[in-house]
Amino acid sequence: MPVGLSSPHDLLPVKGVRLAACAAGIRYQGRDDLALIELHEDSTVAAVFTRNAFCAAPVVVARQHLAQASARYLLINSGNANAGTGAAGFDDARAVCTLMAEQAHVDMVSVLPFSTGVIGEPLPVTAFEAAIPGLLKGLDDSAWSSAAEAIMTTDTLPKALSEKVTLSGGEVVITGMAKGAGMIRPDMATMLAFIATDVVIDADQIKQMHAQAVEQSFNRVTVDGDTSTNDACVLMASGQSGIGFAHEQDQLLFQAALDSVYRHLAQALIRDGEGATKFVEIRVNEAANEQEALSVAYTVAHSPLVKTALFASDPNWGRILAAVGRSGIANMDVDRVHIDLGDVRIVENGARAASYTEAQGQAVMDQDEIVISITLGRGDVDSVIWTSDLSFDYVKINAEYRT
Amino acid sequence: MPVGLSSPHDLLPVKGVRLAACAAGIRYQGRDDLALIELHEDSTVAAVFTRNAFCAAPVVVARQHLAQASARYLLINSGNANAGTGAAGFDDARAVCTLMAEQAHVDMVSVLPFSTGVIGEPLPVTAFEAAIPGLLKGLDDSAWSSAAEAIMTTDTLPKALSEKVTLSGGEVVITGMAKGAGMIRPDMATMLAFIATDVVIDADQIKQMHAQAVEQSFNRVTVDGDTSTNDACVLMASGQSGIGFAHEQDQLLFQAALDSVYRHLAQALIRDGEGATKFVEIRVNEAANEQEALSVAYTVAHSPLVKTALFASDPNWGRILAAVGRSGIANMDVDRVHIDLGDVRIVENGARAASYTEAQGQAVMDQDEIVISITLGRGDVDSVIWTSDLSFDYVKINAEYRT
Q1: How many whole angstroms separate alpha carbon B310 and alpha carbon B155?
Q2: Of A271, A287, A306, which marks where a domain is finished?
Q3: Pair B195, B327 in one domain
Q4: Are both B121 and B248 inside the same structural domain?
Q5: Is A7 a member of any domain?
Q6: Nearest to residue B224, comparing CAs of B291, B276, B156?
């Protein structure tokens, strides 16, 4: 049951971007599992991929194709990751690109393949072959919702959002979708995100703006610390609004809107995190640098003991304290550390706050959305990440998935 | 339900070492929760403590006392960690040492305090005061079993073992006990271990031998990656056998026996790991160095997705592959990586082994004790660690403990 998340609505078409989805029977029955995105030929594209050494064949192929040509088609399947599939996996990833390219009359390097799902099973290329003509016929600029559903795996809800930005030259649109619920952590975990805009933007600028937006969104969320072999986040700008950045202020406005869309999508992954019953924001304040702020934040976020206490709505602040203490910060002066649960100070100067009562902590923990603030007293760097709790359902989902 | 572990039996007394245990009512009702160990005045002692920055008051006090005097008494309570208790916690830890010292007519720095249990509650010093006279009267060299029971927290079984070693001068004895079931990871997680021997050994030698034994035992096990504020492992040598190391071979024999006792106790923590249904050995072979071997091993061992697959007896080797891939090894050549599940090769040269069948993997996963071997093809360093699975009961125990 997702925490504070409902199905997307009011998704806006993006000029120059069309989508389609269908049930190709790749693994699932009775639901869409293949999505296609078509980009206008003037589009610019930026993408980041998983840093997992065992990255899947489609990741390698998509990276290669992006370096060689402008992307025109993104073909995204769920149900099969085409990972751990060796040389045959590369052949299969290239084969679906070729099939797509033949039907769409483009170079095969203009097609980017994306796969998500079970690792180690051969990709059923024939299912793609049968589905591609229908997908091409069905392309429509209003199909964001059905595409967002087709790329889901253990997600309980599709995740998508639109924002309008008024630049000095007029209004542009950003619409994005994402999938992912478990195996989530920074550096592109088991997630795919595709964000499109009709703004005019050059190849260098889109890379920079994409990188900045990813850094404070998808690189700040964790469910279980596991990264997958298939993650990618792609920003596509069709340029078909004819509106670019006339002034520096335009770029700032657009970046802010982009950041907001990315953050919403990244948080949606957590809100729909496998078995999640809590949406947890972890703020680390007064760190000496960002690295140590994130080290403390992720140590707390990944601690199974903290996560099970969150699931139990138990204000067991000792577990938070212990996780902070083992986060590997050199020369931590524990006497300067404060910890707040929501508005309640639970640890002051390294020990239980004199003013703290269990009832206060319980009141915060009983909520669905919880903020844990850790103040280190070492510098002036603040960071924030988002995570979920560890519930019976997390174990159930991950013990039963695939079997 | 512990995996392949039963209650200790045939524990041997160690000359010069007496123990006692009682129900002091520190937190639990109807069970012993306080243990005392008395050492002969000629004893040498070596200890390692948690590296958690928020180490508990008794850890700080025990370290200080060890540096100042020969230890004569170790006072160990369960039910209360005396951690996160600020200045009052230090006063309390010193107060119980003083109470003990007065009754036993020794310096208070000859008393070492150890606490394990809930964080953030004040230590009930009066309970210690009432219990100490009875403990002193009850000291007996055969009380290892009851002491091992008194120090338990979420353990389902006491953990202890004896070994005899025949040195050139005669036979010496090693008897050790440990507690711990969750919050277990290297560098002294939520565990306490006390190992005693009657061998004659000097202060430098005992430190070295202790460090070596710890490194390949307690520093090679993980349940959930969480370290606590209170962990310690203490080796005590009474010297009362009158037998020392006459030859280098004696020292090697003794170290081997010590290693074996430590490894048994460390593995017992995992076998009794919270909610454990599997005992898992993770071997990393052909690493370039120990650091990368352990990095791969712990990434796999801490992966919630691998752990839930183990719980489900699901040969989901893709999750193992993904964990290896995200373990942060620079320039990993995935084409050289093999993974075996027991005797079954599941991944060969980075992809599903051609010979592999799901039935083979299932047969291995159906067992209670599972060996995962990961061959990196990067060098000649092999390492091994031990861990458990992630079950419903892990969540249940940690969501319900304390409430």
Answers
A1: 21
A2: A271
A3: no
A4: yes
A5: no
A6: B276
Residue of chain A whose Cα is closest to the Cα of B118: A318
pLDDT at A102: 97
On the question of pLDDT at A269 being above 60, the answer is yes
Q: Please give the structure tokens belonging to residue B400.
A: 């319900």
Strands (E), A105-247: 111-118, 159-167, 170-179, 192-197, 221-222, 232-237
Residue B35 — left, alpha, or beta (φ > 0 → left; ψ -120 to 50 → alpha)?
beta
A11 domain residue, yes or no: no
> Does A246 share its domain with A264?
yes
Q: Is the pLDDT of residue B189 over 60?
A: no
Q: Between these two residues, A121 and B175, which has the higher pLDDT value?
A: B175
- What CATH number corresponds to the domain at position B337? 3.10.20.340
- What mean pLDDT is predicted for residues A281-300? 94
Comparing CB atoms, the residue among A55, A84, A318 nearest residue B352 is A84
Q: What total number of domains does chain B contain?
A: 2
Q: Of B216, B238, B271, at which residue does a domain stop?
A: B271
Give catalytic status of residue A126 as yes or no. no
Please name the residue of chain A whose CA is at the shortest distance from the CA of residue B349: A86
A395 contacts B308 by C-beta, under 8 angstroms: yes
For residue B11, being part of any structural domain is answered with no
> Is there a domain that residue B345 lies in?
yes
Q: Which residues of A touch B390 (CB under 8 A)?
A: 304, 395
Of B55, B118, B326, the CB nearest to A318: B118
Chain A residues whose CB is inside 8 A of the B228 CB are: 322
d(CA A374, CA A339): 5
Whether ipTM > 0.95 holds is: no
Same domain, A155 and A232: yes
Residue A252's domain spans which residues? 17-271
CA distance B359 to chain A (A): 13
Q: What is the pLDDT of residues A326-366, one digit of tens each?
A: 888 888 888 999 999 999 999 999 888 999 999 999 999 99
Give pLDDT tens digits for A231-254: 888 999 999 999 999 999 999 999
Q: Please tell me whether residues B86 and B199 are part of one structural domain.
A: yes
Distance from CA of B292 to the nearest CA of A (A): 14
Question: Is residue B131 pLDDT above 70, yes or no?
Answer: yes
Please indicate, yes or no, whether residues A106 and A236 belong to a single structural domain of this protein: yes
CA angle, residues B83, B234, A320, in degrees to nearest 5: 25
Option in A84, A183, A352 nearest B305 (CB): A183
A80-106 pLDDT, tens digit per residue, is 989 888 899 999 999 999 999 999 999
